[in-house]
Amino acid sequence: IALIGAFYLFTLVLGYGAAAIVGPDRIMSAAGKENAAAPLLAFELGGVVLLGVISAVAFATILAVVAGLTITASASFAHDIYGSVIKRGKASEADQVRVSRVAAVTLGVLGIVLGILANGQNVAFLVALAFAIAAAANLPTILFSLYWKRFNTRGALWSIYGGLGLTLILIIFSPAVSGKATSMLPGSDFAWFPLENPGIVAIPIAFLLGIVGTLTAPKDRGTPERNAEMEVRSLTGIGAEKAVAH
Prior knowledge:
The chain is an all-alpha fold. The chain folds into two domains: 1-120; 121-245, no CATH class. The chain is built from eight helices and no strands. The protein has helices at 2-21, 24-29, 37-86, 93-117, 123-147, 153-172, 199-216, 224-236. The longest helix has 50 residues, at 37-86. One of its GO terms (biological process) is plasma membrane acetate transport. Its main location: membrane. Belongs to the sodium:solute symporter (SSF) (TC 2.A.21) family. It is found in: Cell membrane. One of its GO terms (molecular function) is symporter activity.
């Protein structure tokens, strides 16, 4: 959370610095418009050398993020969804590798399509949408797991799926997607949610769903035998899955 807050503070400094040094008119007349603020500021402060450094850092960051997300998502789908849910642990390594490759290609194509739809959008705004989705889906569960002893499985599921689903719905029906000249679909208008970023609404509701789900869940303390078994496994590692050759 602190790192995300620091990131946004840096973007504020860069934005105001670019507006003061480069000028809003020059930024908006550039090819990338507001997305060109940081490169133009780098050029003003350090010339072509600093501009080259900033461009290289941005390019390397994009490659690293895309590669990391693609590998993580495809591996998670192949192992967790295909191997554990669909095949119920009976999938072979070859099948999981094949599914992982197909998932990587599918995710890549989907990312390209979404990138085309978001062409010309403010990158900082798109990052804010991603943070809103992550915060609504993950933040309540993380905080409740750390600081609320009564927090249980139902509360986690309600906060995760409720926050994720609500955020996606509000984004789809927000002015960020349709209803404005700067929307992803400027020719359509099906927006009924007034805010472009749903975080201020979705995140508190996700916290509320976690609380309601926890308080309405039936008390299940398990069995003493099962509790003892899980304690031994957590402390010794007995029964853990063996290493897999890659």
